[in-house]
Amino acid sequence: MPTYSHSQLSTYETCPYQYKLAYIQKIKIETEGIEAFMGSRVHDALEKLYRDLKMTKLNTLEELLAFYYQAWEKNWTDAIQIVRKEYNPEDYQRLGEKCISEYYKRYYPFDQGKTLGLEETIYFPIEEERGYWIRGVIDRLTLLNGSVLEIHDYKTSGKLPTQADIESDRQLAFYQMGVEGKWKDIQEIRLIWHYLVFDVEIQSQRTSGELQRLRQETLELIKRIESDREFSPKESPLCDWCDYQSLCPKRRHRVVVESLPPNEYFQEEGVNLVNRYVELKEKKTILLGEIDAEIARVEEAILAYAEREELEAIYGSDHVAKIKNEIKEKYPLKGDPNRKALDEFIKNAGKWMEVSDLNPWMLVRVLERGGWPPSLAKKVKEFATVEKNRTIILSKLKERD
Fold first, then answer.
1. Are 35 and 41 in contact (CB under 8 A)?
2. Residue 338: what are its φ and ψ, rounded to 5°?
3. Secondary structure (DSSP) of 44-110
C-alpha cells in the first residue's frame, strides 16, 4: 500500500526531480550535509538523556557532552560535506554542544512529565479506502498530569519560524493523527518544537477541523505526485544542500566543472561555449549602443537639414524620410505645483467626472472632441504647456519603370 512521510512530501514540494531520484528510482547517496550530521548527533545525545532517565539514571551535562563527542567521532566520515565554506567541522561541533548545553540547563532535572516513547514510530491511514498511509518517527512522547500528551520534536535549524509557520506545520500534526486514541483518558494533545540553536520552545495545538483540512490537503498533494509524469527539477536556494546535484540536469555540469583543476577547467567545452556566448552578447550590446548613438546623431542632422531647407520630405536613393511635426498640449501631473489649481478649476466647473479623476490624457481627448464651451476650454488650456515634437518616418520608394 502507498506510504508517505512528511519528509517525502516535503521533498516533492521542494523539487519533484529530487523526489523522483530518492523515492521512485531509490538512488542511494553516500554524502551527507554537515547540518544533518550535526542534527543527528544532537538527537542521539537527547535520546540517551531520556532513555537513561527511564532507567532512573540522570546523566550529568559533562557525561552527555562526552557521549556527543564520542558519537561525532564514531560516525564522522569523509562523505560529510560542508556547503558554507567559511565554517569548519569544529564550528558545527561547537554549535551542537551549545544546543545540548542550553537544553540541559533549561529543563534540568527533566521532571516535566513521564516519557512514554523515544524515537516512536507512527503509522496510520490518511485514507483507508484508497490505502494511503502516513509514517513518521516522534522524537519524544510525554504524558503530563495523566491527561495531557505532549509530542516533542528537536530542531537544529538555523532559522527560527514564526508562530504562523508553526500553526501551518504538517509534521507534528501528522504525529498527532498517529497517536490519537492510543492511550485512554487523554484530554489534550500539545505539539512542542524545540529550536535548539535559539534555545526556544514553541507550542501549538490542532483542532479536529484543522486535522481534517490537513488530511484533505495531503490527499490532494499525493494525487499531484501520483499524476506527475515529468518530475521536473525546480531550482531554489536549497539546491546547494541537495545530495543529488551530480545527477540533476540543472546542476550536474556545475558539479563536474567545479571538480576540475584550473588548467582543465578553461579547456572544458561547455565552459568555453558559455564564455564565448557571453563575450558575443557583450560585444553585441556595445555595438548596438554605438549604432544607436550614431542613429541619434544622423536623426539630429536630418531634422536640422529639414528645418534649414524648409523641407518636410528628404529623399535618399531608395527611401524617403518624412518629417512629422506635432504640437502637443501637456497638462500638469501630480506633484506639479499647478496641478492643485487645475483640479479645483475642473471641479468648480462641474466637469470632474468627465476626465476620469483628472487624467491628463483624458483631458486632452475631451478638449479635442469640442464638447466643452469654448470659454471653459480656453481657460483650461491656460494650464497647459506646449511641446513641439518632430519625428522621422522612413518609407521605401517605389521602384521606377
1. no
2. -80, -10
3. HHHHHHHHHHHTT----HHHHHHHHHHHHHHH--TTEE-S-TT--HHHHHHHHHHHHHHHHHHHTT-
Instruction: Give the 3-state DSSP-derived string for 322-357, with helices as H, strands as E and coil as C.
Output: EEEEEEEEECCCCCCHHHHHHHHHHHHCCCHHHHCC
Write out the three cell numbers for 286: 556595445
Q: CB-based contacts of 336: which residues, under 8 Å, 6+ apart?
A: none
pLDDT at 401 over 80: no
Find the angle CA(161)-CA(81)-CA(138) to the nearest 5 degrees. Answer: 45
**What is the reported pTM?**
0.74
Cell 534540568, residue located:
108
Per-residue pLDDT reduced to its tens digit, 166-193: 999 999 999 999 999 898 899 999 999 9
107-139: per-residue pLDDT in tens?
999 999 999 999 999 999 998 777 899 999 999
Distance CA 4, CA 132 (A): 8
CATH tag, 3-241: 3.90.320
Cα 256 to Cα 245: distance, rounded to the nearest angstrom: 10
Looking at residue 400, its pLDDT comes to 62
CA distance 141 to 189: 10
CA distance 41 to 1: 33
Q: Residue 297 — pLDDT band, cuts 50, 70, 90?
A: very high
Q: What is the mean pLDDT of residues 153-178?
A: 95
Contact yes or no for 186/147 (Cβ under 8 A):
yes
- Residue 224 binned pLDDT confidence (cut-offs 50, 70, 90): very high
> What pLDDT, on the 0 to 100 scale, is given for residue 159?
94
CA distance 12 to 309: 72
Domain residue ranges of the chain, discontinuous segments joined by +? 3-241, 260-311, 314-396
Using the 8-state DSSP alphabet, how is residue 160 labeled? P
Distance CA 218, CA 9 (A): 9
